[in-house]
Amino acid sequence: MLETFQRNTGHESRETKAQAFKRLAAQRTNTVIERLRILGNCGNRNLYEYSDEDVRKIFRALEAEVKRTKGKFSETKKETFEL
Q1: 80 domain-assigned
Q2: What is the distance between the alpha carbons of residues 61 and 56, in angstroms, rounded to a whole number?
Q3: pTM score of the predicted model
Q4: Does residue 21 form part of some domain?
């Protein structure tokens, strides 16, 4: 069953949940990629000074957030106890 919903754009258009996911996921993924490229600019040692520990902290934080986000896509419904 394809569910549709109306986007609040001022005109009538119907978009399935799958279409909305693809549209938003693509936009948001491209935004994250662009921001990572911008972060990469900080790697220029001619312009910035940083330690290996600074770099490790940055990538630990990014990797932890990627892991949390990835988990949201693979979560299964938790079984609940019923009598």
Answers
A1: no
A2: 9
A3: 0.73
A4: yes
Q: List per-residue pLDDT tens for the chain, 83 residues long.
A: 556 656 665 556 799 999 999 999 999 999 999 999 999 999 999 999 999 999 999 999 999 999 999 999 997 767 788 88
Domain count, the chain: 1
CB of 16 within 8 A of CB of 3?
yes
What are the residues whose beta carbons fall under 8 Å from the beta carbon of 14, sequence distance 6 or more? 4, 5, 6
CA angle, corner 50, sides to 45 and 48, nearest 5?
40
Domain housing 59:
4-73
Assess if residue 50 is contained within a domain: yes
**Cβ atoms within 10 Å of 26's Cβ, excluding its own:** 10
Strands annotated E in the chain: 4-6, 14-16
Q: Is residue 48 part of a domain?
A: yes
- Tell me 42's DSSP state: G
